Amino acid sequence: MSDPRGFLNVRARHEVADRPVAERIHDWNDVHAEEGLQPWTQEQAARCMDCGTPFCMTGCPLGNLIPEFNDLVRQGKWEEAYHRLSRTNNFPEVTGLICPAPCEQACVLGIHQPPTMIKADEQTIIDQAYKLGYVQPMPPQRLTDMTVAIVGSGPAGLACAQQLTRAGHTVVVYEKDEKIGGLMRYGIPSFKLDKGLIDRRLAQMVAEGTVFRTGVEIGKDISWDDLRSRYDALVVAIGSTVPRDVKVPGRDLNGIHFAMDYLPDANRRLEGGTLHHGIDAKDKRVVIIGGGDTGSDCLGTAIRQGARSVTVLQINPKEPDVRPENEPWPTYARLYQPTTSMQEGGVYCYNTDTVEFEGSQVTDRTSVTLDDSGLVAGFTADDTGHVTGVEVVDVHRGIGGAREHVPGSERTIEADLVLVSTGFHHPDTTTMLDQLPVELDRRGNLARNADFKTSQDGVFVCGDAGRGQSLVVWAIAEGRSCAAAVDRTLSAGGSTELPAPIDSTQRPMSLRSL
Questions:
Q1: Of 140, 146, 160, residue with least CA distance to 235
Q2: Do both 32 and 152 map to the same domain?
Q3: What residues contact 463, with CB distance under 8 A and at least 6 apart?
Q4: 355 and 301 fall within a common domain
Q5: What is the DSSP string of 274-326?
Q6: Are residue 378 and residue 441 in the same domain, yes or no?
Q7: How do residues 191-211 score in pLDDT, each as one tens digit?
Q8: How far is it, in rounded angstroms, from Cα 438 to Cα 154?
Q9: Are 181 and 49 part of one and the same domain?
Q10: Burial of 89 by CB count in 10 Å (0-12 exposed, 13-18 middle, 19+ buried)?
Q11: What is the DSSP pairing of strand 403-405 with strand 387-397?
Q12: What is the spatial distance between Cα 403 and Cα 274, in angstroms, rounded to a whole number?
């Protein structure tokens, strides 16, 4: 590093500026201020230390060479910074916006000062690269005679597709929805991830030779075994889509929906697409069950749709402001970091669960134990069978850490719309197991070996379909590594030049792994 004292000269961390709340809640545009990051990013990049061991890189499954591109940013060498970053990350425009940045929590500077701005640097690099014309198609110099089908166009599937296309294989990506992008397009609100960023990347991929087929549901329009027979290799990247439900009396009332039925329709409405459920929060009292990122996305979406009120129920306590002892540096600590949606309104109820139910269609009024989602909710109904309320009770940790209800804390939260945002179990393999019987692991994910191979010859799996629900940065890393495994299998010599940042068994760094 050319400025090893930069972190001493610039001690303050400059956070990304957001647009005023009063302005941004009335549109679906990017929540960040239009001034961009570039005016102060170079100064912030100088805070990156000349670390003997840059632990930030251990926090990133992509293996981004963070100190290198930070120094290039500091010097304003945008083209070199772009080429350095794009060698390890296919979609920095995505990770620069929605990744929770485990790299920053592993930053050595973060032990005593606020960590280096790594996520913002990624975003600035790719913004500058597009602005200055550095992002160009990279078609292969020669084509192999091998063909690969990829089912699913989320971050894992697209990363795998781009890597294999650049290696010279003929790649076709199948997507059941109207447009390419998977979770990035339909699951993430536009105010967090502008869909134009996806479209400009897809234009590059098309120019490189990747073929996209939309509106094709494998297992229905084309059988899984037929698809496998058409190609030399098949990559399954269908994500983890079977939601964890809230299995309590009253769950079948009208007005209770999964978050991933609600958010995709909100995105389709903005793009003029076909609505699947027609859910709208306008003038409704909304209760969101689950306080993670998806719950936060539901909050921001409901506010923009004109919800009368929004309440978020979270069974866990509020996260601490400082790193707890059981999550030491450089592991990823669950700290309280209010999202932009949380800043916009709504009420968060922590340590909250539900035990009793009433309503004209609800006859079981017994107490209910927690299901595997870690959250249970009960509902009240009107005479038409529409939800009118969620009955809740406070919880605390008792002896042995088990959750216990707090007597006398029972109450009802009025609701016209309830959104269940409690995570996902595993991929939807309903048609696959009949048509292409692959083995599943104990969690219901597609079982694979260290090289991403399933029990079926020539069939690979990457992303949440094999790993379970995870972060976008892990999905990209899985796609890149799976591409290397596919390329190695298809090549005559059994070798590949494609990078493989992880194997299928690798997990985020934790106290147990240190």
A1: 160
A2: no
A3: 152, 154, 155, 156, 157, 237, 239, 470, 475, 478, 479
A4: yes
A5: --SS----TT-EEEEE--SHHHHHHHHHHHHTT-SEEEEE-SSPPPPSS--TT
A6: no
A7: 999 999 999 999 999 999 999
A8: 21
A9: no
A10: buried
A11: antiparallel
A12: 42
Determine how many CB atoms are found less than 10 A away from the CB of residue 334. Answer: 12
Looking up residue 466, the CATH number of its domain turns out to be: 3.50.50.60
> Cα(180)–Cα(55) distance, rounded to whole angstroms?
35
pLDDT at residue 31, as a whole number? 96
What is the residue range of 40's domain? Answer: 6-131
Q: pLDDT at position 364, please?
A: 41
| Last residue within a domain, chosen from 100, 131, 162 | 131
The verdict on residue 167 lying in a domain is yes
Q: Check: CB of residue 159 under 8 Å from CB of residue 181.
A: no
Q: Is the peptide bond before 330 cis (omega within 30 degrees of 0)?
A: yes
Tokens 């592991």 correspond to what residue?
331
CB 187, CB 120: distance < 8 Å: no
Is 509 a member of any domain? Answer: no
Positive or negative: CA dihedral 105, 106, 111, 115: negative
Give the residue carrying structure tokens 């790594």.
Answer: 118
Structure tokens at 112: 């005593």
Query: Are 93 and 174 members of one domain?
Result: no
The DSSP result for 368-380, as a single string, is ----TTS---EEE
Q: Count the alpha carbons within 13 Å of 274 in the hemisphere toward its beta carbon.
A: 6
pLDDT category at 248 given cuts 50, 70, 90 is: confident
pTM score, two decimals? 0.94
Lowest mean pLDDT among 120-134, 211-225, 388-402: 388-402
pLDDT at 209 (0 to 100): 99
The share of the chain scoring above pLDDT 90, in percent, equals: 78
Question: What angle do the packed helices 78-86 and 66-74 form, to 10 degrees?
Answer: 170
Per the CB < 8 A criterion, the answer to whether 450 and 485 are in contact is: no
pLDDT category at 514 given cuts 50, 70, 90 is low
Q: How confident is the model at residue 221 (pLDDT cuts 50, 70, 90)?
A: very high
Residue 196 counted as domain residue: yes
pLDDT for residue 79: 98
Is residue 244 within 8 Å of residue 425, measured between CB atoms?
A: yes
Contact 437, 456 (CB under 8 A): yes
pLDDT for residue 405: 87
| Cα dihedral across residues 175, 180, 182, 185: positive or negative | negative
